[in-house]
Each structure stands twice: as structure tokens, then as C-alpha cells.
């Protein structure tokens, strides 16, 4: 299990997606963690110190696992990059073509121009 | 495995599950490009909710859900989520627009 910094993690995640295009899966897990043992946490709670929570993110392609930990101040930046990576790679999913899904603004406009 | 058919129900129940036990709840995403399938799972090791799809529009909805989880996890379960768009607006606000004072 490789623990990386934010940016290297994102780079590795991108290459994982690229490598599993023809075959394979990418799993991404999100979990909250303070990265401290229960004993330490209890001590901190009783001592009145605020326990700092971070978001643990793990990614694997079945063979290799990478992980990173994101705190409240990095989370915005990570979120933006993560969303970009996902959007860029999840291209194999089907596009909705049904007319009943009018919430999709693009589809709505197309239908508007087709119908007389 | 509990597969939820409605996206909104999945989001609602996942958020509830997380708020009830933030330390043991995790969110897992599995993507297979060769099959064109995406599966989401939220579990606290007692109860498990899953959602599967092959639709591109669900990927967009999932992005919003990711944002929600990121906020909840890094800021704490009591963080104000407001479907993320509300949150982003309140953060972008300081001093620039809406106050009306142009001098």
C-alpha cells in the first residue's frame, strides 16, 4: 500500500485509468479517518483538543494500490482535480437518448430544435 | 446486496448512513471501462447500499455525490452540504457580489 502526496496520487490514478481501458477495473474508496489509534483519539477528546479528521482515499487496479490523505484545506483542490480525471476517463458509459429525461439541458435543446 | 434503483434515494440514505456512523462508513466506486459499468457502494459494515449504472448522466450525478462525501469527510459530519451547489455559492461569496456597494 503506497501512501502518496496529493499530486503524485492524482498522476498515478490517471495512469491507472489509462492502463485499464481494454481490460480491468479501477476501484476508488473514500473513508474518513483521523489517522490515529482509538486510544489516542479518546485521550485527545478528554483533553479537550479538537480531533483533526482527514479523508482517506485509496485506489487500486487489482494489482497495485495507492492511497492519499486529504485534509479540509486540500479537499477543494483535490475534488476539482479528481472530478476532472473521472470525467476524462468515464467515456464508456452510454448516453441517454430517451425523450422522457427532460432534465438533461442538452437533450432538451436538441428536441426543441427538432420539433416543428 | 441491496441495489437501490433511485439515485435520489441512494444519495439520501448514504448521507444518513454516514451521519449516523462517520468513522466506519466508507464509499467505494468501481469502474470497468471494458464493460462500460459503474458501481457505487456505501457501507458502515452493518448495512450496505449499492447503485449500479451504465449511463453517462449518472456519472455526472456521481460527481456531485463525490463532492458531498468529500465535504462530509474532511469537514465533519455536521458540515453543511446543501447539495454542494449551495456550499460553493456561500464560499465564493465573500465581498464580491450581492452586497450592492459600488463606490
From TrEMBL, chain A:
Pfam families with a match to the protein in the record: SRP14 (PF02290)
Biased composition (Basic residues): 92-102
Superkingdom of origin: Eukaryota
Spans annotated as Disordered: 92-116
Keyword vocabulary terms for this entry: Cytoplasm, Ribonucleoprotein, RNA-binding, Signal recognition particle
Biased composition (Basic and acidic residues): 103-116
Subcellular location, principal: cytoplasm
Transferase recorded as keyword: no
This protein's record includes keyword Cytoplasm: yes
Localization per record: Cytoplasm
Protein role: Component of the signal recognition particle (SRP) complex, a ribonucleoprotein complex that mediates the cotranslational targeting of secretory and membrane proteins to the endoplasmic reticulum (ER). SRP9 together with SRP14 and the Alu portion of the SRP RNA, constitutes the elongation arrest domain of SRP. The complex of SRP9 and SRP14 is required for SRP RNA binding.
Subunit structure: Heterodimer with SRP9; binds RNA as heterodimer. Component of a signal recognition particle (SRP) complex that consists of a 7SL RNA molecule of 300 nucleotides and six protein subunits: SRP72, SRP68, SRP54, SRP19, SRP14 and SRP9.
Family: Belongs to the SRP14 family.
Protein name: Signal recognition particle 14 kDa protein
From TrEMBL, chain B:
Disordered as annotated region, ranges: 78-103
Entry's localization field: Cytoplasm
Pfam families in the record: SRP9-21
Record's keyword annotation contains Flavoprotein: no
Main location class: cytoplasm
GO biological process terms, semicolon-separated: negative regulation of translational elongation; SRP-dependent cotranslational protein targeting to membrane
Single GO MF descriptor: 7S RNA binding
UniProt-listed InterPro entries: Signal_recog_particle_SRP9/14 (IPR009018), SRP9 (IPR008832), SRP9-like (IPR039914), SRP9_dom (IPR039432)
Keywords recorded for this protein, A-Z: Cytoplasm, Ribonucleoprotein, RNA-binding, Signal recognition particle
Any one GO CC term of the record: signal recognition particle, endoplasmic reticulum targeting
SRP9 domain boundaries: 5-66
SUPFAM superfamilies: Signal recognition particle alu RNA binding heterodimer, SRP9/14
Domain of life of the organism encoding this protein: Eukaryota
Family: Belongs to the SRP9 family.
Described function: Component of the signal recognition particle (SRP) complex, a ribonucleoprotein complex that mediates the cotranslational targeting of secretory and membrane proteins to the endoplasmic reticulum (ER). SRP9 together with SRP14 and the Alu portion of the SRP RNA, constitutes the elongation arrest domain of SRP. The complex of SRP9 and SRP14 is required for SRP RNA binding.
Name of the protein in question: Signal recognition particle 9 kDa protein
